[in-house]
């Protein structure tokens, strides 16, 4: 009976959206403009807003269920591996954990397997004009629809359970096979979202762009925000050429990291002891881009075996630890 009620809710969402389909404006896009009228939307987010209706999104997902085509970067004993994974999109992981989860402990085997991991983190002193940084981000597809999972409108996302205990219901609604790579990927993301936060961390997994907006603005206490994203389209060595924007030291921010899931889900967390910079970059091939670099001035609550400490040879609570965020990750800051 519970399953039938849940299915009825989902059908009602789809039916109500079909009635309003004559409107060409996405309800997700409209919500952004309503809540953040003076804040430009980064292309990394705009690319995740589908022109399809809820029913079309579900039909498209069911058609793609057998493809298992999510591209990810993972690091195991053999080092970094790039391969097909469920859900379409890009993810950066060490083993099955995100290096942006500060509870994560890296093994020596993972680091020895790929010495290039040392480029993932850097010290604050290395973040200055003229410094060279090696950014190993996957290139964005020239056709976002071919490589991206989209945001679900909040009405649809809220009609699908988002919990480990109800994963089987979500899989049934999305027509995803139990035990498939896509299902396992969703299970790992749910476990990360439901796992404990580190000391002083306020975390939240946003299952729609609308919920990300609400969480970020309520956490920052204002709708007057800057929303920053890295825009680097080729993994190569870059030279830092300037800093168009830099937040005040220790200012509060919200970082949102793209997760591996059947539709766009972001792991968001509030950080108070950070400095965020928008960095101008020039590639060795002459191309230019912008990167978002976050420096953590208080790492005392991080796992002592975190990857950053191992590759930088620093200790928790010691020198600030910095990293660039991937293309599809987002940082929210107060505008003033």
Q: What's the arrangement of secondary structure elements?
A:
Elements: H1 2-19, H2 27-35, H3 43-46, H4 54-63, E1 70-76, E2 79-85, H5 108-113, E3 122-123, E4 132-135, H6 154-158, H7 167-174, H8 181-194, E5 202-206, H9 209-220, E6 225-228, E7 236-246, E8 251-258, E9 266-283, E10 288-296, H10 307-312, E11 321-324, E12 330-334
Antiparallel strand pairs: 1-2, 3-11, 4-7, 5-9, 6-12, 7-9, 8-9, 8-12, 9-10, 10-11
Model description:
This protein has 10 helices and 12 strands. A hairpin with a 4-residue loop joins strand 9 (266-283) and strand 10. Strands 3, 4, 5, 6, 7, 8, 9, 10, 11 and 12 form a 10-stranded antiparallel sheet that branches. The protein has a two-stranded antiparallel ribbon with strand order 1-2. The chain is α+β, with helices and mostly antiparallel strands and 336 residues long. The longest helix is centred in the first third of the chain and has 18 residues, at 2-19. The protein has helices spanning 2-19, 27-35, 43-46, 54-63, 108-113, 154-158, 167-174, 181-194, 209-220, 307-312; strands at residues 70-76, 79-85, 122-123, 132-135, 202-206, 225-228, 236-246, 251-258, 266-283, 288-296, 321-324, 330-334.
Concise account of the structure shown:
With 336 residues, this protein is of the alpha+beta class. It has helices spanning 2-19, 27-35, 43-46, 54-63, 108-113, 154-158, 167-174, 181-194, 209-220, 307-312; strands spanning 70-76, 79-85, 122-123, 132-135, 202-206, 225-228, 236-246, 251-258, 266-283, 288-296, 321-324, 330-334.
């Amino acid at each position: 009976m519970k399953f039938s009620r849940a299915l009825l809710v989902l059908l009602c969402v789809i039916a109500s959206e079909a009635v309003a389909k004559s409107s060409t404006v996405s309800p997700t896009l409209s919500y952004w403009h309503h809540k953040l009228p003076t804040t430009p939307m980064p292309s990394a987010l705009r690319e995740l807003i589908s022109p399809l209706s809820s029913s079309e999104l579900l039909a498209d997902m069911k058609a793609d269920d057998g493809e298992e085509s999510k591209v990810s970067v993972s690091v195991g004993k053999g080092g970094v591996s790039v391969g097909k994974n469920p859900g379409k999109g890009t993810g950066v992981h060490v083993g099955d954990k995100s290096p942006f989860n500060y509870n994560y402990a890296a093994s020596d085997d993972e680091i020895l397997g790929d010495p290039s991991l040392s480029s993932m983190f850097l010290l604050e002193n290395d973040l200055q004009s003229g410094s060279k940084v090696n950014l190993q981000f996957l290139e964005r597809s020239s056709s976002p629809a071919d490589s991206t999972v989209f945001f679900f409108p909040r009405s649809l996302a809220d009609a699908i359970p988002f919990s480990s205990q109800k994963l089987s219901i979500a899989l049934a609604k999305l027509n995803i096979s139990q035990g498939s790579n896509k299902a396992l990927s969703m299970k790992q993301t749910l476990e990360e979202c439901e796992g404990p936060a580190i000391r002083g961390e306020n975390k939240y997994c946003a299952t729609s762009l609308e919920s990300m907006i609400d969480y970020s603005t309520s956490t920052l206490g204002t709708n007057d925000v800057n929303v920053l994203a890295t825009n680097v389209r080729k993994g190569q060595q870059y030279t830092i050429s300037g800093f168009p924007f830099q937040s005040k030291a220790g200012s509060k921010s919200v970082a949102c990291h793209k997760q591996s899931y059947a539709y766009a889900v972001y792991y968001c967390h509030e950080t108070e002891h950070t400095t965020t910079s928008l960095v101008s970059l020039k590639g060795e091939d002459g191309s230019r881009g912008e990167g978002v670099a976050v420096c953590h001035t208080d790492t005392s609550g991080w796992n002592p075996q975190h990857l950053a400490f191992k590759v930088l040879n620093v200790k928790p609570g010691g020198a600030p630890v910095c990293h660039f965020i991937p293309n599809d990750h987002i940082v929210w800051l107060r505008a003033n």
